[in-house]
Structures are given as C-alpha cells and as structure tokens.
Design goal:
The protein has 350 residues and is α/β, with parallel strands linked by helices. It folds into two domains: 139 residues, Nucleotidyltransferase, domain 5, CATH 3.30.420; 194 residues, 3-Layer(aba) Sandwich (Hexokinase, domain 1), CATH 3.40.367. The protein is built from twelve helices and 14 strands. The protein has a six-stranded mixed beta sheet with strand order 9-14-13-10-11-12, sandwiched between helices. Strands 3-2-1-4-8 form a five-stranded mixed beta sheet, sandwiched between helices. A hairpin with a 3-residue loop joins strand 10 and strand 11. Helix 5 crosses helix 7.
C-alpha cells in the first residue's frame, strides 16, 4: 500500500497553503517535509471545498495517481466551534464533516484547529523548527508559553506542557481592546477612532495595521513629499510590503518610523500575553510579518518595550522571546498534530 499521507492546510484571509505530509516517519523537522506544496489566493474561492478539489486534481497529475490520504488537519483563521469554523476574514464556513466526504477519509479523521493552535504545535510539541532568539531570559522549569502572530489579522495562543503532555489553547485576543502607552500612541488611537468605534489590537498589529501606521504618520506631510501615496480606498495587497521594504532599505524615515511603532506595539502586546497567563516559559513571535521585519524586532527598542511593565519589568526580563523563522511552520504544526491526535490513536501509522 502507498505510504499514508495527511493533507494539511493553513487557511488565512489573504492566502491558503496546502500540502501533503508523509507520516510513515515521525520525529524531528526533517521528517516533516511537505509534498506537493501549493499556495492559493483565498478570496478567489467561495469556500474551501473547490480549492481542495483543484489542489487534489493537480496532485493526481503530479503523482500520476491517487494519493493515499488518510487524514487532514486545517489551521483556520477564526474560532472553531465543535467541528465547524466561520472564518474571521473570509465569508467561509469550514465544516470538518463536509471535508471528510470530499477527501474520502474515515469519520473523525479531519480536524480543524485555530490557525494559531496549529502554529503552536510546530514549536510546543517538539523542537521542530528554527527560531531566532530576541531575548534569552531565564525560562527555568515553567512549561507555560505564549504565541503572538501578526499577519492578515493578529493571532494569539497559549502553550502548555511538554512532549506527550503538550497542548495549545486557542485565543481571539487579537480582537481585544488596544490601549496606548504614550502620547504618540494616544494620538494614533484618536486617529483610529475616526474610522472604528472599537479599536482592537488587530487594527494596529496586522498587514493593514502597517498601512494605518504609515497613513497616521504621513497624513500631515504634503502629498509630493510622501514616500508612498496614501490609499484613498482599499490599498493594493502589496502595500504593507512596499512600506516594509522602504523601511528595511532605510530609504524613508516615515516608513521606518511606521515599522518602529509596529515593533514597539507588538512588544507591548507580547508582554501583555505573558503577564495574563504568567508564561515564564517563553514567548514566540510568529507569522509572516515578523520574519520579514526581523531587524526591527531584534532592536533594543523592542526588548525595552517588552519589559517596560512597571513592577513586573524584572519578571519580563527573564522571559525568553523567539521569532519563528520557518514560513511552513503552520503546516508542520498541523501535520504534527495529526500524527499525535488522529492517526496514532487509530493505528493507521506505526
């Protein structure tokens, strides 16, 4: 029989990544190598099902036959209720039961995870992926950690336990209220109130958050002198990347200031999460944005803002902080989850 495969997906508001993983071997990162990876623009599809159908047709052509898919796990940007998720940034309803019929796998072998829960499984269950250390800290014996990941939206999760006892708690903390910590941020909040009655953390810490920070800083600059035009409607999909690239190239002080503010607010939110669950074990920074703007997160300003919490500054200085460097981490996490919680319990892999 052909090797058993798990279909995994990382479903986001901008793009969806799909891949197959072989589960004949399990262990370190080299055992979790994606087969037939593909990326699709999420908004081009009315739901996940037609995307998967298109993907599987492409896979059959590449493999010259039907893959032996025995399970599937999808990390979805949105709250999972039972076996259903209504996505936050897409008009989709993702239903595990419907996907089981589409993929033709045993009932119960399709699992939906919150996207941050899937990402958490790539770092919490085993040391599967590469990390960059922002603050070494002194983790001690604590097994409680947190994960904060800005992308299309802002995802957060809590990680508990180690090895066989590891589990992850999903969160929608990105939609909690955002609070400024200085006069400049207070002006930013007043500016955002002109557009939103509720300013969540995600309004600032996301791809569109970068655009809002840039617009806030550039609005009082005469148009001819602005490094990039302020979008009058929906900005181009690559506009956050344009701002980031100018900042990374040190070509414009406004773009650089926008990313400096983004990094400092991210540090504030990360340490907020640490304090809320007393995550002495560490804090992971994930998502595509942190990988891209890594130099701004490795700054003294980021570390200073992370620990600036008054009486708890000493505690926060001892908390390790890492950036997740593997862009395939959500897929690896979903595959690892499937190997632990679906297939091994059913005896479908050794």
């Amino acid at each position: 029989m052909a090797q058993p495969l798990v279909l995994v997906g990382d479903i986001g508001g901008t793009k969806t990544s799909l891949a197959l993983f072989s589960l004949a071997e399990r262990g370190s990162r080299e055992h979790f190598v994606p087969l037939c990876p593909a990326v699709y623009p999420s908004k081009r599809y009315d739901s996940l099902e037609p995307m998967i159908q298109e993907y599987l047709s492409w896979v059959r052509e590449r493999l010259v036959g039907d893959p032996n898919i025995v399970a599937a796990t999808f990390g979805v940007a949105g709250p999972v209720t039972g076996r259903v998720c209504r996505t936050t940034n897409l008009p989709w309803i993702v239903d595990a039961g419907s996907l089981e019929k589409l993929i033709s796998v045993q009932e119960g072998n399709v699992n939906l995870l919150n996207d941050l829960e899937a990402l958490a499984w790539s770092v919490g269950g085993d040391p599967l992926i590469p990390l960059a250390t922002i603050q070494e800290g002194e983790p001690g014996t604590s097994t409680t950690m947190v994960l904060v990941a800005p992308g299309t939206g802002l995802g957060e999760a809590v990680l508990c336990g180690r090895d066989e006892n590891f589990f992850a708690l999903p969160s929608e903390g990105g939609h909690a209220d955002w609070a400024p910590v200085n006069k400049e941020q207070a002006r930013l909040l007043e500016y955002l109130w002109e557009e939103f009655s509720h300013v969540s953390v995600e309004r600032v810490l996301s791809g569109m958050g970068i655009v809002r920070l840039y617009t806030f800083l550039a609005k009082d600059i005469p148009a001819p002198n602005r490094p990039l035009p302020i979008p009058k409607a929906e900005p181009p999909a690559d506009f956050p990347s344009q701002i980031s690239q100018k900042a990374l190239d040190e070509k414009d002080p406004v773009c650089m200031k926008a990313l400096e503010m983004f990094a400092e607010i991210l540090a504030q939110e990360a340490s907020n999460m640490v304090l809320k669950v007393l995550a002495r074990g560490g804090c992971f920074i994930g998502g595509g944005i942190p990988i891209r703007i890594r130099p701004f997160l490795e700054s003294v300003a980021f570390r200073r803002r992370f620990v600036e919490k008054g009486r708890y500054s000493e505690l926060l200085a001892k908390v390790p902080v890492w950036i997740i460097l593997d862009p395939e981490a959500p897929l690896v996490g979903s595959a690892f989850y499937a190997s632990r919680h679906v297939l091994s319990y059913r005896g479908e892999i050794a």
